[in-house]
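Fill-in record for Tetratricopeptide repeat protein.
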Amino acid sequence: MFTKRDANATGKRWLGTALAVVLAASLAGCANSRMTTGSINRDSGRAVEHMSAQELERAAVSLGDAYAKAPTDKAIATRYASVLQMIGKTDQSLAVMRKLAIAHPKERSVLAAYGKSLAAAGEFETALDAIRRAQTPEYPDWKLFSAEAAILDQLGNSNEARTLYRKALDLKPDEPSVLSNLGMSYVLEGDLRTAETYLRKAVAQRNADSRVRQNLALVVGLQGRFEEAEKLARQELSTTQAEANVAYLRSMLAQQNAWNQLKDEEGKKKAAN
């Protein structure tokens, strides 16, 4: 049985590598308005979170050229940083946003995107400060509440994080990215059933994207329902990728169960002595 402690460790390990993606869902839309990932005529014009791997690579090249010519242009730099994050170039994304934040130290959208890059790089305390400075009490932004909450989850402040997720949902009811982040908060605690409830609600929304559905596949797999998890994953990934992901989950859970059995046996030996 996958225990709360096991789920906590697994969830933190997974979310540690996937935080950039989680925050991309929380912050998408801030930069032209968490940053607008809408159309810029120098690339495909598609929202970054909906691009394929090939589209992201092409966008990185075209936006890199545009950025070299205008490194302090807010729309170009924030979109470029977002694309860099999506292709795993976290350090480069942070460098782009750090330079932009120096050029625009009081710009709310820049602070928000900078906070996203800091969090993706694991600089959570600094990211928290940037996100909080971007938030304004008179015009609260649901995307920033969700982003702040995701960082607090990483810092172990789950109760405070969930309060902020619910504030975000008050402002943006049934927003799938927030519901997904809230679900993943429960993964960190090891409450996989509650996590699945929120993720299924997120997936049911018309504007749910691929990452939300992949999160659901993960949580289903963590509960040992591998066939269902693979079926969900195949809707978003290639057959090979889906099979590899589920194989990894099987292996991870098998190793964890073996470790638990060893601990149980050791406990019995000590009790007998």
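KEY FINDING: Residues 1-8, 13-42 have pLDDT under 50 and may be disordered.
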